[in-house]
Amino acid sequence: MNTQISITTDTAPRLLSAAFNQDQGCFTISYENGFRVYNTDPMELNVKREWDLRPATATATTATSTSTSTSINNKTTNTTTTSNNTTSSPPENHSREAGGGIGLAQMLHRTNYLALVGGGRNPKFPQNKVVIWDDLKRRPALSLEFLSPVLNVLLSRTHIVVVLTAKVHVFAFSSPPVRIASYETADNPHGVAVLANNVLAFPSRLDGQIQIVNLDSHSSSSSSSSSTTTNDRSRSPSSRSVSPGISPPPPPPPPQYGSNLVTIIRAHKGPIRCLALNSSGSVIASASEMGTIIRLHSTRNTALLHEYRRGLDRAIIYSMAFSPGLGPGAPLRLAVLSDKNTLHVFDATNVVGGAVVASQAATAIISQNNNNNNNTISSSSLSSSPSSSSIISNSPRTQPAGLINASSSASNSSSPQSNNNTNTNNLVGSFFSAAAAAASSAVSTNRRHLLGKLPLMPRYFYSEWSFVSARVEGQAGVLGWPSDDAVVIIWTDSCKWEKYVVVEKEPPASSNNNNNNNNNNNNNNNNTNDTPHENQFELLREAWRGFEGISHD
């Protein structure tokens, strides 16, 4: 995002930022005199809002491909609730405002609400102000002002997250907005923060650390403490209908977390440069300013799930994004874009799947141990025993086998429950075996060094590289996945939309391949960790288009 006022003689509107919505099915671009909303794939213009740069006039236009309604999903939106506490002017007074530059536009799913921040040479709004724009009424619905420029805004149906240089503010999406919490961060000039499934992640106060906040816990605590807040949320924009007779779908069920609202992940040594959450908010990918290593952590227990290597040279990671991975058997992939003119795609399907299995196994272990303790420990000592949630949140990062060994030793020491504990350990052990098998199979998907099988080698040789990559023309851009096999780049430095697809190469047709395939099948088990996968997949540039009437200089 670029909210700095620059001095230039260019007359064409300049692209300032781009952002995808929550499901990556739509994206917005912000420029010197307005913003646009596009469908991701195929690329189609849905909404176009422009204000004349002259102080005395203002115009608003709708794309010819859409209906006269301003709803982003091209359907008429019936909305009757209006904010009674807004600092913005009514629509007829907006024509007197000088400038129309929008430095940031964030969508709320596919509704008619967007978060706008002014930017460019002639900002539409102050750069320290967040405006929740009702595109149906073409006027602000809510606004928030701060003492420093706003660098990023994240939206959900229940929360508004505002990122400043050294702080992150969380508000309830209500009328008026209610501040829930504020967090201090390290110097965050790029506004790094991500939100998925009400799981919020941003840099902590110490370099290299990530702070995880479960906003669902905030919502439950705040709603139970005050009935007024509950009434306000009932009037929030998240409860308004998106199309006639159809109410917006309810938010997905929150993931199961421990009792702690805030979790710290020690991810890197240097400052955090880029973050990405999967759709469920259970896995976070992080990269530091060094840009050589990408690490995957669990947001539930802060465990390090996997580590990928982008390269050896220092690089700026501009964007990372997980594929949806929602369907049965759908792959989970991580795309990484850097200033080295390279797009990398990593396969994280089995890594995340193994983490889920291990998490279920850990829960089963603790639950079974608690049940056994309840049967053998006297009632007077139950009050001092910790709950299962506190055990999970305070446990060190041990290997799953460590938990199994601990429970095994406990079962041997208590003879009345030894049979039950043995059966439980066997059951849970099978869970961990499945998790280990999933992790080992994940290693074979991405490329590894041939010397990685040798013992006592430097750490570099045990690294894991992307299973497919492609050279790209631009550097600065934003990534999004419209599907599990297609990744889209919105280039902010070259002002264009570009689509790449991951395809599997077909084996060459030859009469001699039948004999070769038999030999390859016999040796397949010995070569799964080498580099044959770099020849099985490729990343193809399928389509590209520019943004008409916008300059990137």
Automatic annotation (TrEMBL):
<dbReference type="InterPro" id="IPR036322">
    <property type="entry name" value="WD40_repeat_dom_sf"/>
</dbReference>
<feature type="region of interest" description="Disordered">
    <location>
        <begin position="58"/>
        <end position="99"/>
    </location>
</feature>
<dbReference type="Pfam" id="PF21032">
    <property type="entry name" value="PROPPIN"/>
</dbReference>
<feature type="region of interest" description="Disordered">
    <location>
        <begin position="507"/>
        <end position="533"/>
    </location>
</feature>
<feature type="compositionally biased region" description="Low complexity">
    <location>
        <begin position="58"/>
        <end position="89"/>
    </location>
</feature>
<keyword id="KW-0853">WD repeat</keyword>
<feature type="compositionally biased region" description="Pro residues">
    <location>
        <begin position="246"/>
        <end position="256"/>
    </location>
</feature>
<feature type="compositionally biased region" description="Low complexity">
    <location>
        <begin position="217"/>
        <end position="245"/>
    </location>
</feature>
<protein>
    <recommendedName>
        <fullName>Autophagy-related protein 18</fullName>
    </recommendedName>
</protein>
<feature type="region of interest" description="Disordered">
    <location>
        <begin position="376"/>
        <end position="422"/>
    </location>
</feature>
<comment type="similarity">
    <text>Belongs to the WD repeat PROPPIN family.</text>
</comment>
<feature type="compositionally biased region" description="Low complexity">
    <location>
        <begin position="376"/>
        <end position="395"/>
    </location>
</feature>
<feature type="compositionally biased region" description="Low complexity">
    <location>
        <begin position="512"/>
        <end position="529"/>
    </location>
</feature>
<feature type="compositionally biased region" description="Low complexity">
    <location>
        <begin position="405"/>
        <end position="422"/>
    </location>
</feature>
<dbReference type="InterPro" id="IPR015943">
    <property type="entry name" value="WD40/YVTN_repeat-like_dom_sf"/>
</dbReference>
<dbReference type="GO" id="GO:0005737">
    <property type="term" value="C:cytoplasm"/>
</dbReference>
<feature type="region of interest" description="Disordered">
    <location>
        <begin position="217"/>
        <end position="259"/>
    </location>
</feature>
<keyword id="KW-0677">Repeat</keyword>
<dbReference type="InterPro" id="IPR048720">
    <property type="entry name" value="PROPPIN"/>
</dbReference>
<dbReference type="InterPro" id="IPR001680">
    <property type="entry name" value="WD40_rpt"/>
</dbReference>
